[in-house]
Write a structure and sequence with these properties.
The complex is a heterodimer. Chain A is mainly alpha-helical. Chain A contains 11 helices and 2 strands. Chain B has 2 domains: 173 residues, 3-Layer(aba) Sandwich (Rossmann fold), CATH 3.40.50; 68 residues, no CATH class. Classes of the chains: A mainly alpha, B alpha/beta.
């Protein structure tokens, strides 16, 4: 273990580096090692389950799933390759999600800062909150037909409520003393909103964005499963109709991959929106 | 304006009264503070010290009476009031430097002057090395130093401090009390310092106002004419501390 000390602003900073020896015991406890073990065990079990029996299993091996993905990327299905279908789903999500957060976040902030707005609008939010977005599918098809609009409407509903509620809760949880800092300096109500309400609720808003994008992704797949001729949900339905587990699993893997990319992107956005939550090494 | 033009006081508190329903908390409090004076206020627990400061800072409306700064009723928009709260109130999304400069931004201090004053204050309180860190990356004492630096940075007409060091250990408290005295002497600010710690009041203040229990009035005024730096073991220091203690125990 090495140790060094120095002063920062008259306070002592002690920095220690502990070097661990690599032993079997420490390896077994290593997080990254366990991460790899977990994935290897999962894919092995998947492979064994798929290769059991006489080859007529409804499950294909991980390798065959990857091959199926490659085939779908090179040869079109329903007029589009896998990339085209993925983009169709993603485009719907991005449109519905963007509309939802553009309306949802300001509405949530308004509910948080205005008791009157809260009294008028909270009951409506509370009525719609427990209603699953999928319950709207039939009605949205009746209203908008079978084009893009009903899918975007479902995505909007799926991501709107988390955006509203997280922004609202973000404002409600602000420490009252932070408002006093602005008031005592002679700041206006607008200063309070600009300097305290918006930045202080940003971590909650960001958490709401992550929930919203996940809900939006689930919403688009559900909408595509019910009625669509493009998108990843459509591929799964097509695979089911053709009894092609390779296509179904390929679609599922793509869904998981895109969801992972979306989550990782939202984490990056979170770091941009709330840079003060980052840690600086050594302090 | 009932303010007397002949008065040379920077701050005048006249018949300051606060009621919550039928409960009389502050009962016609009167006192003056001269420009550049550091006055401490002590009183028994629950006497309404925080309500008193909230009225002084205009965070709470008074029931009667008013506070005058240079003869004009105090107004956070017109005057430079600054407040150091008991709890650390650094804005978490601003770096140390951005927190210190915050009051000057609200007050509309020109950018060039703002940068110069920021540099000066950061050096004065020793926060230069941590200027780019966020509050969650500094210690509790540094958080309070950020609040103190932010308050002094606006060149306040009146700086109100509500037991700012009450939650820190003795060593840090001594260090920060010395720092406060240095800032006050250097910047010639007018400070009203509330504390329940009598030793702290005698150490930092030029004058101590002793409050009564509710309904709160100013019970007595004690002048602390000790040379600086002050010594806790100086017999006169001990005598003033005893005198203030007796005044609080009187009830």
């Amino acid at each position: 273990m090495s140790k060094s000390t120095h002063d920062v602003s008259n306070e002592v900073v002690v920095r220690t580096i502990v070097r661990k020896r690599l032993t079997l015991r420490s390896l077994v406890r290593e997080e990254k090692f366990l991460y790899v073990v977990s994935l290897v065990v999962f894919f092995t079990i998947w492979h064994l389950a798929a290769t059991r029996g006489n080859g007529d299993s409804a499950l294909v091996t991980p390798w065959a799933t990857l091959q199926g993905l490659y085939d779908m990327m090179s040869s079109p299905l329903g007029g589009e390759t896998l990339v085209g279908h993925t983009w169709n789903s993603l485009r719907r999500v991005l449109i519905g999600f963007s509309i939802a957060v553009c309306f949802g976040i300001p509405l949530g902030l308004l509910l948080g800062i205005s008791e009157t707005a809260s009294a008028i609008l909270r009951p409506l939010v509370d009525v719609f909150r427990p209603m699953p977005p999928l319950a709207w599918i039939s009605l949205s098809i009746l209203w908008f037909g079978i084009g893009e609009e009903p899918k975007i409407f479902i995505i909007f509903l799926a991501s709107f409520i988390p955006s509203v509620l997280n922004a609202y809760n973000g404002v409600r949880l602000i420490e009252p003393e932070l408002y006093d800092v602005v008031r005592v300096m002679g700041g206006s109500r607008w200063d309070e909103i600009k300097q305290v309400v918006v930045p202080a609720s940003m971590p909650a808003i960001s958490a709401g964005l992550q929930l919203s994008i996940t809900s939006a992704w689930m919403g688009v797949l559900a909408a595509e499963l019910v009625s669509s001729n493009s998108g990843l949900g459509y591929i799964i339905i097509l695979g089911m109709q053709n009894s092609d587990p390779q296509m179904v699993l390929g679609g599922m893997v793509m869904i998981a991959a895109v969801a992972w990319v979306l989550t990782a992107s939202m984490e990056k956005i979170d770091m941009m929106l709330c840079p003060w939550r980052r840690e600086i090494k050594g302090l | 304006m009932e303010q007397s033009a002949a008065s040379n006081a920077k701050i005048e508190v006249r018949n300051l009264t606060k009621k919550f329903g039928d409960l009389l908390v502050l009962d016609r409090i009167n006192f003056n503070i001269k420009k550049g004076e550091l006055v401490a206020i002590v009183g028994p627990t629950g006497c309404g010290k925080t309500t008193f400061l909230n009225c002084m800072s205009k965070l709470t409306d008074t029931t009667d009476g008013d506070i005058f700064i240079d003869g004009v009723p105090a107004d956070p928009v017109k005057h430079n009031l600054a407040f150091v709260f008991q709890e650390p109130t650094a804005l978490p999304w601003r770096t140390v430097a951005q927190n210190v400069v915050y009051g000057m931004e609200v007050k509309g201090v020109p950018e060039k002057e703002r940068a110069e004053r920021l540099e000066y204050i950061l050096n004065l309180v020793g926060l230069k090395d941590t200027a780019d860190l966020y509050p969650n990356q500094v210690s509790a004492s540094m958080m309070q130093r950020i609040a103190v630096a932010r308050a002094f940075a606006v060149n306040p007409d009146l700086l109100l401090m509500d037991e700012p060091y009450g939650q820190l250990d003795v060593k840090l408290r001594f260090y920060l009390e010395d720092e406060l005295v240095k800032l006050w002497q250097t910047l010639n600010s007018t400070v009203l310092f509330i504390t329940h710690n009598i030793e702290e009041a005698v150490y930092v203040a030029e004058r101590i106002l002793v409050l009564t229990p509710k309904p709160t009035k100013v019970r007595a005024e004690v002048i602390v004419d000790l040379p600086r730096p002050r010594n806790f073991l100086d017999p006169r220091f001990v005598e003033i501390r005893r005198q203030v203690t007796e005044l609080i125990r009187w009830w």
